[in-house]
């Protein structure tokens, strides 16, 4: 056959390396069936095999069957066509076992990999079932990654376990895009996914899943991948998403490990100063450097006072302790302003200071702010003048030109010196070791104070805040992590090189478990599943209750403590040591036992602990506290009292730490401090028991009937039997057939944490009808904070007779709605915000009448009453921002956030610096100042213009309006003056006289001065109207005996 030439493709046809869409378009052949639409008619993704993909943690066989990935290359034909055993790794060089086999520790036996950790011994030395462990994530993927379209990004995740886990990936819980554009690898527990030519469709949550034959585990967190379009003025190595001209761009710093970065997706937040702060003493040396001289001239920390109302820290003159005049005092900021603060770059430090000074003044020339970190010190000096007896505002930005390497340079006293660069600021912010703010403004130092200190930072917590565009998000190479690649990833450690932070290099270490384990973390080297009674990172010490030298490397290294015998119940000391003379010393003999090995009884104790079952007992017998002991008499074995779980002491008469109030009704002896998970320090409160009572003499007292879902209510035809003081309903025959409950009025609801340890008392009676089949609904149901708890009375409630029921308000009385026992946390969370208390009214179908009487609810009040102390109610030592006996409320100036356990955390009100007061639950600001309004004081009032989010008193300025609109509540008249201002009452301000002046509240027309002054016991001048409602206290006299007119 004569040779033929390759036929030429017709004009306009796609090339050989391209695929042709149904509409004639050409795309790269690799783009067909890759999970993304590349043809405009989407024909490139039609009739593709991937449409029948298996789950992400499954392997797809050639016959389209799906099997678990851990079954691949395990020696078993799980697919049926043997495709899961194809393309496996070659046999290990020099190994007697194949790729699909497990080598037993003896070295002379191979078993199929699928036999390892299957619950049965297959190795003769049983090593195939030793150390089996579910996967544990050791290096989760980064929380966020940002790349630009077209770039390549790699995500890494590592895990340990036995068998070694494989790493699988998911995108938005589904399959990841197919290869070759997206490729994965998993080797020795380290998995990577590489995404090439990143596209918008790659955005989302990339999940790492570690799988072995024992279990599968998802890493936390997922990596949220953000793919930014190729747009904007700034391109790597420059960034600034909001730049309008090239001069607005910043150069990527990224600690010199990459030149690719973008503006972060974080938002600006403010870190307020609201924790303890200290004063330090600094003195300038001959070169102008500041030296800490606190050892020689120790400041008096008792001179510091704190006013929480305006976040003012004040220091008095006696802080000096006779220090010379050239010793200057600075505020030393607490840990929340130290360490890594790179997210503050481009942000501001803002605060106010006040001080008093005699005349004439003697003002020292010293720096206003000093920050130190990574062997660098930067200084900031105020440019504007300041003075005593007035408010002085300071604003310093983390920006080039704002900081200097010497105080003289910052003050402008010298014109030479190293210029402080962005690199210098970033190096200090990476690890702030000291943060000092000036407190000395006059040599006499009468007193000075710092108010409303806050520092800008950035996080994801407030999406409504401005974007932190000056915070870089770098595309870090392998081994580095952090927004600026400032940290080493897990499995890497810092190697100091050059002038920067140094390089991140792999830090893998070999296993060294002293023969007590064959499995260790491949990253940290920490041993897993230590055996032979050993423990520690390298199985280097004996477990509690054993002695010996675990480092010798034999199974007999650790032996049980002979105290005096090695078997219970004659092992009286839980610990022992191998002493210098080679003998064992028991170092925790209990009370009543003496000797090196607890082998004899002490004075006042009788018995013989050396014979099996023998012990030492108090001569004449030990009296155990019956409230805190499990049994009235000491143990026959040990001679000691057996305490309840939360009780301690020889007689079981003391509460353990973090518990309080030893009492007989608590099943654990004492009550644990709950404190809404905010603190663990509490005690019995100082309040007294009181009762909320309902006496049905003239009205229903707000009680109604409802069903268990509270969807059907009855408030008509409720009859009051004043003679028997009970509430009766007799018209059930006209109502839908269902179980009805008495619903308690609002006085029983809300914050009732003080009801803990009290009682809910009531008396009920019902009269059944002809159909008297009993229902199984609970007797009482309480609801609050989304929790439902029920009470079931242990005795039968018989018809046509009064039943008085008293429910102890302990968790042991209540069940969850799923029938499981309630915990103390469940009950206190419910009581913190009670929505409803329902008491069962109808116990059978066809009930004709039901009555309720003698309802009372025991609570506690903060004043003496005729009742006892409420000792079962905790009084927690709440941190700043929290209030309430159980820290269940946010303090003034704080509001509830969505983070944290139980009720959530309390964070400062966010009112754009125009108010310090907000609703503690919703966060909506109250009493907005500076001509602002809105939920967060973010808007200028009518008649004012500007940006209220600027956070300064001058954000909103008067606008020129044709006429004013006088508020009749605050105006003396409705006529405007020549400036279009209304005539305001004395305590009112604003063009329209519609705002109270600072220090006043409650604008109303009947007040001749417009607003009432804030009292607040002189502590602050900022207040607003309370959220309380008016109510009346009624006194019902049942008889008039022993009443006299005087």
UniProtKB/TrEMBL annotation:
Subcellular location: Secreted, Extracellular space, Extracellular matrix, Basement membrane
Annotated InterPro entries: EGF, Ig-like_dom, Ig-like_dom_sf, Ig-like_fold, Ig_sub, Ig_sub2, Laminin/Netrin_ECM, Laminin_IV
GO MF term set: extracellular matrix structural constituent
Domain Ig-like: 135-219
Matches recorded under PROSITE patterns: EGF_1, EGF_LAM_1, EGF_LAM_2, IG_LIKE, LAMININ_IVA, LDLRA_1, LDLRA_2
Keyword Zinc: no
Residues annotated as domain Laminin EGF-like: 511-560, 623-672, 909-958, 964-1013
Cellular component annotations (GO), alphabetically ordered: basement membrane
Keywords: Basement membrane, Disulfide bond, Extracellular matrix, Glycoprotein, Laminin EGF-like domain, Repeat, Secreted, Signal
One biological process term in Gene Ontology: tissue development
Disulfide linkage: 14-26, 21-39, 33-48, 54-66, 61-79, 73-88, 117-132, 530-539, 624-641, 643-652, 928-937, 964-976, 984-993
Domain Laminin IV type A: 274-473, 698-875
Gene3D superfamilies cross-referenced by the UniProt entry: Immunoglobulins, Laminin, Low-density Lipoprotein Receptor
UniProt keyword annotation of Cell membrane present: no
Pfam families: EGF_laminin (PF00053), EGF_LMN_ATRN (PF24973), Ig_3 (PF13927), Laminin_B (PF00052), Ldl_recept_a (PF00057)
Major subcellular site: secreted
Record-given protein name: Basement membrane-specific heparan sulfate proteoglycan core protein
Organism, as annotated: Araneus ventricosus (Orbweaver spider)
The organism's taxonomic lineage, starting at the top: Eukaryota, Metazoa, Ecdysozoa, Arthropoda, Chelicerata
